[in-house]
Amino acid sequence: MICITVTPSSRTLAKADLLNAARHGDIIELCLDHFSKDPDIDDLIRAVDKPIIISCRRKQDGGQWEGTEEERLLMLRRAIAAGPAYIELDLDIANDVPRFGSTQRVISFTRLDRPETDIDRIFDDAANARADIVKFTWPTPTLGAAWPLLVAVSQKRRLPVVGMGLGRPELTFSLLGLRYGSPWIYAALEKGMEAHDGQATVFELNDTYHASDIDSKTRFIAVSGFGESQTLTTRILNAAFKELDLNVRCLPIELEDVSDLKRMLDILKIRAIIVGNQHGSSILELADHVDAHDSESGYLNLLLKRDNGWHGYNTLWRSGLKALESVISESGKSLSKMNLLVIGNGGIADSIVYALTRREGLVSVCGPKDKLAQQTAQKNSCRFVPYQNLYETLADVVIIADPNISMGSQHGQINPSVIKADMTMLDVSDLPFETEFMAEARERGANTINTAGIYTQLLEAQFKAISGKELPESAFLKGLSDE
């Protein structure tokens, strides 16, 4: 079930929010700490026919309550007397608000600085405070940080447990919570009404992540990152899984330290992870089996668990090389006779340099971090260009391969004057979106390569490896229409 949190500041807004939330959620949390005047709680909880949780959070717990603690306790006692389905009480004040009627007590423990580790003790304290449901809330910036929260929800206990992660990666916990039987997960009604920064809306949960389809038998495919490109990938893949009637859905995760990743994926029974940006290099060591070419590229964007271990794949360098060769061949030329300049540091740049050196062209590498660019050049036996010499370097083809590089005149940025009308330009740093470099290149008359085509080939290859099936064209249309 999805619990929609509403944070109105007035009685009029509260009724409107409650009615809207009732149309889209299973449970509604009405936060009293945002009201500018004392609300008529009895009137509000009877405005809708969905179960309501009443809460009133202090600022130290992420709320907006500005009154005294005595006033807050009085409001909570009045609220429970009105007979809501649930009342949320902080663990430290739970014994000061007696049980009343049929209202169930959600005893809550919150910390805003870090994940909690002493879960068993806190659970026992909440149970002793006459909890019907125990709630944990703390930051979940990475999969590792969400792990204790997930363990708290997934383990069989004598009382149900719900949780709320703080930050955008809360999505990870929420979707896993549905898989492991959490009584409900939390969502905002719409953008601008989030209970905390980054909270997903109910529409995101349903339209992008297909939350209503997730059950105890759902298998997850992990997608690393929460950016626009990763979200688009999730929309397309989820649409494909649904169309093919596969009980598989995408799980967004934020990686930081990959040292414990395989263990967590195994416990969660996740057998595939799509990886991008900076983590493509770090997960190479996690693969038990990698094709020789993919291994030499120094970058992976897909890990698959098979019977004999984890298999790593790099679908980027092949897709990028194929698109580049297709465009160059139309002009009757060959990559082997061209000056090819790759700009960037990191796994994506390493992968593209490796691909280009397979065609024996004159490949040069240049990046804001000269030492890293020099290492890439040495590894691939190609030319290193110091960053300060970028504008003096002649190139027939320029490839931007680093999501951290932006256009401008500041240190580390690239001045658009590097783009010439007679060159070919490609930016693979944020597939499939057109970056400012590509727009500038088009304006300056350069030949630009369609990144959407590269992304399509890349995603089709990944989907085929994961599912053994072709990615339906209609899934692309559905994913794009949901933007």
Could you walk me through the main structural features you see in this protein, from its secondary elements to its overall organization?
This protein has 483 residues and is an alpha/beta fold. The protein folds into 3 domains: 2-200, Aldolase class I (TIM Barrel, Alpha-Beta Barrel), CATH 3.20.20; 228-314 and 468-481, Rossmann fold, CATH 3.40.50.10860; 317-449, NAD(P)-binding Rossmann-like Domain (Rossmann fold). It has helices at residues 11-24, 41-45, 69-81, 119-128, 143-154, 170-179, 202-207, 228-243, 261-267, 279-282, 292-297, 316-330, 347-357, 370-380, 436-443, 451-467, 473-481, and strands at 2-6, 27-31, 52-55, 86-90, 104-110, 133-139, 161-166, 185-188, 219-224, 248-253, 272-274, 289-290, 302-306, 309-313, 339-343, 362-366, 383-384, 397-400, 424-427, 447-448. The chain has an 8-stranded parallel sheet with strand order 7-6-5-4-3-2-1-8. A 6-stranded mixed sheet has the order 10-9-11-13-14-12. Strands 17-16-15-18-19-20 form a 6-stranded parallel sheet, with helices on both faces. Helix 4 links the parallel strand 5 and strand 6 (133-139). The longest helix has 17 residues, at 451-467. The chain is elongated, with a radius of gyration of 26 Å. The two termini are 24 Å apart.
